[in-house]
Structure formats: C-alpha cells, structure tokens
User: Which sequence fits this backbone?
C-alpha cells in the first residue's frame, strides 16, 4: 500500500524551507508521496538557470530586507510573501503523476467554490487569470513537483521587485505583471494562506484514498543533511557567482521559454571558449546539456546534435543562424 506523508513548515526562511524539500526529494523512502506546505517571507525565487540580475531588482530587494533564492527546478521568477502558500509533491517515480497532483489543488479550491483550470505549460488559472505557477524536477528515486498559490500576495511589492521580459508580456497580450495574475482572496475574501492548509491536506488524502501521517518539521530541520543543503543554497556563489559578469550577446523567446546567452569567443582559434545560458525553460538539465555541447565548439559551423531536443536545436540555431 502506498504511504502518504504531510509536512507543514513553521518557518518563513526560504533557504530552510527549500533545504527540507531537497532533503525529502533525496532521501524519501520508496512507494511514498509527500505533500509539503510552506511559506516564504519577502522572497524572489528564480529558476535554476536564471540570471538574477535579469529577473529582479536585486539591490532593492536585499536593501529592503528581502531574500533571493534559486530553486532546483526550471521555470520563471516568482515573488513569495506570507499572503501566498507554496506546495510540493515529492513522489516515488512510479507514483508521480502531475495531473493527479494538480487535482489535489483543484479539489481543495472547490471547497471555496473556485474552479481551477490547467493552462499553458505550467500554470493554474481561475477565471482566466494565473494564480499558480508550477515547476518540476527528476531525482534519483523521487520526482518533485512544486508551485505557489497566490491568495493575498502584495501585488505592488511583486511589481517592485520582479523584472518581466517585455517580449513575454507582448506574447501574452498584457501590459503588466499584475494584469495577468489574480489573488484568490479577490474572488473569495475569506480565503487565506492559513485556512487553505486543511482543505489541501484533506484533498490530498481524498485523491490518494488513504490517511497521511504527519512528519515533524522541527525534527527535519535539525538533520545535518538539511543544514548542509541550507548552507550551500544560501551561499553567494550559488546565488550570484556565475552571473556577476554575465553579458547577454544573444536573446530570444521560444514556445518553451525565454533564453539569454553570453558567449566568450576565441577569435584566433575560432572556438567558443565559454558559454552561459540563462533561461526560464522547465528543463534545467537540457540547458546544461546545451552548454556542454557548445563549449569548445567551432564558431564556423554548428556542432552536430543528434539529441532531437527542440530546446537544444533552437539554441544552436540562435547562435549559428
């Protein structure tokens, strides 16, 4: 019989919350699905391959006591505060089912009379406006699916910190960040990031047809492995290191996401000495494969690519034409 687990964070520290998520993904036992609920305070969260300086006003955010966190999944930048709640599904590979996991969110919101729809590559919408973005990662034994639920997020602070690609706004036919998202409390005023927790847990048990056990959050955060992860992901090098000298030489937006490329070229030998690719692509591993393929490649002719991967193909074409 499948085992269900629930973890509810009692901290608002983004690095600690992410460290617990990573620990569960790495160490969770087989035949298990975990629902993890957590909230961050005044935090911009960027995708694994994103350039922080292109995605948010870093200095302003940090000067005002906010946090920048880089997650382990792909996708775009989002703003977290105590007016929204975040969820993670950590599931054994054999039990991982994105549609089923999203149905937990949909079912919980039905308790408040809200109908949520799956939209685009990774969004949940209500009445045509986005309230949840989702991202995904594959681990050795478990897969991760996480996202946010906007309930009463401060839209002014979101716009204050986030930098949105104008090409993305034009593609979506909207004029601002705020116009394409919705706080669910606008639709149901009594809904909060606290009173949604029990409906989410109840829907989790309903959808999976079993009672969940609750793991103690304080026990988890005292594990040495969690503290080690926290130290790594909060380091300056992890957050900013490779991006501090990043200078965009190529930029484009495709159906799978946006991309910025920085190239260092050895003109004498006609090779690409180094390459960095920033992207909100939902497949962070593919971006790294593209970097590996192109680093050291000739500038005179495109490298051979037999992967059949659309993302790698588009990146090569962007560079070589």
Assistant:
């Amino acid at each position: 019989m499948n085992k269900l687990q629930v973890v509810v964070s009692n901290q608002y520290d983004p690095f600690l919350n992410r460290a617990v998520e990573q620990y569960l993904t790495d160490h969770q036992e087989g035949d298990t699905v975990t629902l993890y609920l957590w909230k961050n305070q005044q935090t911009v969260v960027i995708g694994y391959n994103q350039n922080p300086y292109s995605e948010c006003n870093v200095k302003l955010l940090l000067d005002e006591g906010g946090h920048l966190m880089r997650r382990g999944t792909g996708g775009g930048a989002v703003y977290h505060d105590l007016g929204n709640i975040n969820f993670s599904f950590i599931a054994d590979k054999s039990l991982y089912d994105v549609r089923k996991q999203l149905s937990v969110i949909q079912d919980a919101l039905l308790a408040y009379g809200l109908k949520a729809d799956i939209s685009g590559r990774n969004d949940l919408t209500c009445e045509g406006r986005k309230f949840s973005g989702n991202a995904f990662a594959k681990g050795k034994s478990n897969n991760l699916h996480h996202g946010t639920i906007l309930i009463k997020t401060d839209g002014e602070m979101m716009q204050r910190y986030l930098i949105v690609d104008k090409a993305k706004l034009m593609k979506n036919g909207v004029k601002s960040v705020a116009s394409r998202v919705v706080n669910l409390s606008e639709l149901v005023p009594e809904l909060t990031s606290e009173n949604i927790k029990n409906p989410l847990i109840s829907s989790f048990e309903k959808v999976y047809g079993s009672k969940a056990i609750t793991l103690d959050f304080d026990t988890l955060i005292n594990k040495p492995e969690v503290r080690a992860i926290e130290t790594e992901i909060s380091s300056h090098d992890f957050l900013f290191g490779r991006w501090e000298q990043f200078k965009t030489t190529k930029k484009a937006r495709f159906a799978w996401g946006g991309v910025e490329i920085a190239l260092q070229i050895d003109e004498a030998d006609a090779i690409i000495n180094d390459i960095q690719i920033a992207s909100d692509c939902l497949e962070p591993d593919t971006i790294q494969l593209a970097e590996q393929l192109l680093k050291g490649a000739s500038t005179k002719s495109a490298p051979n690519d037999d992967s059949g991967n659309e993302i790698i193909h588009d990146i090569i074409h962007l560079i070589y034409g």
